[in-house]
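By convention, each integer encodes one residue's backbone shape. The lines below illustrate.
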Amino acid sequence: MRILVTGFEPFGADAENASGETVTRLGREWGDPDVELVTAILPVSFAAAPARLGELVAAHRPDAVLAIGEAGRRATVTPERFARNLIDARIPDNDGAQPRGVAIDDGPDRRAAGFDVGALVAAIRAAGVPAEASDDAGRFVCNRIAYELARAGLPGGFLHVPAVRSRGVATVGAETGGGDAAGSGALGFDELVRAAAAAIGVLAAGRRVA
């Protein structure tokens, strides 16, 4: 089985993105011979991120996709149940684009994830990491990728992790977590990697939707 796992590059004024660091460490440490892991870092760009995701899917033809982003002011790992058909950028993306109140397409107001969120939450908790299901993927590039995955009908979906930093605290966060600043000292990268590995285990077992 081949699973594509993506994170994001840093954005705003921050030099690090918890999702990108988690994916990098996960790829470096992965050792399951039954699951071929393809890892990639997406640009924080409303235009370039979905285009890059499409290129990766076309090139690697994964059996499932796990996209990871960071959520400011969240203390737990949160698989997203839905993605909203809306872009509303509080700050510009890394290309300088700042769309406000724009629909992604002419489809429904929201689309459901292509994985069993309950199974992901249970598996992440069993790995010793706090997790909760979420119904709000934000309105920034994370939500844009979550919507793209849901629209494509691919097995998998979007997972938010707290905005962990190697040093200091995050200065971004309202884009994904509903607050003005971010930074969670409760979890570290070891826990985030364990959470991502647990989610991959669910996808590898074929648990798609509830």
